[in-house]
Amino acid sequence: MPGQMSMYDEMRVGKNELYIDFLWERQARKINFYS
């Protein structure tokens, strides 16, 4: 079922993007805090 797989892949990619945004936000806060 390629349709189901692509839906699952989209969900996985979306979660990864959210996690990366979260890490970037933490990093930016750290830089602002120390500068």
Structural features, described:
The protein is an all-alpha fold. About 95% of the residues lie in helices and about 0% in strands. It contains one helix and no strands. The protein is rod-shaped.
How many helical elements?
A: 1
Major sheet attributes: none
Rg, Cα atoms, Å: 15 Å
Number of strands: 0
What's the pLDDT, averaged over the residues? 79
Q: Strand fraction band?
A: under 5%
Oligomer: single chain
Strand-pairing-aware structural class:
mainly alpha
Compressed to H and E, one letter per element, the order equals: H
Task: Report, as a whole number of angstroms, the end-to-end distance.
Answer: 51 Å
Write the layout of secondary structure elements.
Blueprint: H1 2-34
Brief account:
The protein has one helix at 2-34. The protein has 35 residues and is mainly alpha-helical.
